[in-house]
């Protein structure tokens, strides 16, 4: 593993342990060249997934991009990092176990919407505003109007 500080290719693993949910291995590393310490995570990847965008463009699936989009929706919301990580792991597992290598971006978006709906209603509306491309206040009103008293969407 290359040192992110000095670029040295020969770093040493000082400690390895599984993460709390056993979905990855956390490794503490040391660079003998510059003396820096850093952490890496190793995850199992069942298959290479390709995301098919609306435009037809194909891009490699990026777990970090999925996590970032959830973090943005959940910004300043009372949701623990561990719950966010479990949601990301769950979505990735569902995608990998689907048997498909090419996944439509809309399918990933719907999975995120489902997860946010149960996790946090405000984050759900935030994500929906971008995912459904709200253009004006009326779009928000219509979407929020579809929510019932408990914050669950009304089935249409």
UniProtKB/TrEMBL annotation:
Matching entries from InterPro entries are given as: ATP-cone_dom, NrdR-like_N, RNR_NrdR-like
Where on the tree of life does the source sit, at the highest rank? Answer: Bacteria
One MF term in the entry's GO annotations: ATP binding
**Which Pfam family is one of those matched by this entry?**
ATP-cone
Q: Which GO terms describe its biological process?
A: negative regulation of DNA-templated transcription
Zinc fingers (unnamed) by residue: 3-34
Q: What NCBIfam families does the entry give? A: transcriptional regulator NrdR (TIGR00244)
Stated role: Negatively regulates transcription of bacterial ribonucleotide reductase nrd genes and operons by binding to NrdR-boxes.
Identify this protein by name.
Transcriptional repressor NrdR
Organism expressing this protein natively: Oceanibaculum pacificum
